[in-house]
Amino acid sequence: MNGLSSLTPPRPSNIIAQVRRTSACQRGWSLVELLVVISVLGIILAFFVPPIVSRITTHSRRVQTQQELNVLRDAVAGNPGATIGGQVVQMGFKQDVGRLPRSLVELATNDPFSGIYANVMYIGKEVIPEWDPYLKKGWNGPYVREDGNLSYSEDAWGIPYRYIVDNNETLGLESAGPDQLFFGQPGGDVDDDIRARF
């Protein structure tokens, strides 16, 4: 005997011969196969990711706009549900001043002729009298937070909010929505407007 057990298989003399004996599934993927798989995945993602991202973006803008409209509605008309000790604590611009704001700028300032408001033009622009605690009348704001850009006056798409008016009655505020056209305007055939009623 040559000193080797008969149970031990003989070792291959060459490593190349050993590699050739392994099957294709044991060897792994070739570079070409990996590139083909990555290309197919890239094409699939190119078709499906943009619509998903667009939907998510549109939904988040709708939610943001609806929240802003709700805040503006409470600032204009008050919130009768906000009470302390049975008394309403969030009266709103309309109850304090006795009229609706002629522009949303009046929710942030009672002097629209100064500062960043000087260039904003609207019908009926005037200085609103300060709050009189005895008469319980006058401007008792600010009713909205000012960021220096008048961002509270526009929706998430940059379109200014407007009042909902029906038969000369102001019913609330609305945004043009994702198509950026108010329903009924030329081209605004889809009613995707976002509304908050008083």
Care to give the gist of this entry?
By secondary structure, the chain is α+β, with helices and mostly antiparallel strands.
Structural features, described:
A 3-stranded antiparallel beta sheet has the order 3-4-5, covered by helices on one side. Helices cover 32% and strands 10% of the residues. It has one domain (15-197). The chain has 198 residues and is of the alpha+beta class. The protein has 4 helices and 5 strands. A hairpin with a 2-residue loop joins strand 1 and strand 2.
Q: What's the SSE blueprint?
A:
Blueprint lengths: L14 H7 L2 H4 L3 H47 L5 E2 L2 E2 L4 H5 L64 E5 L2 E7 L18 E4 L1
Antiparallel strand pairs: 1-2, 3-4, 4-5
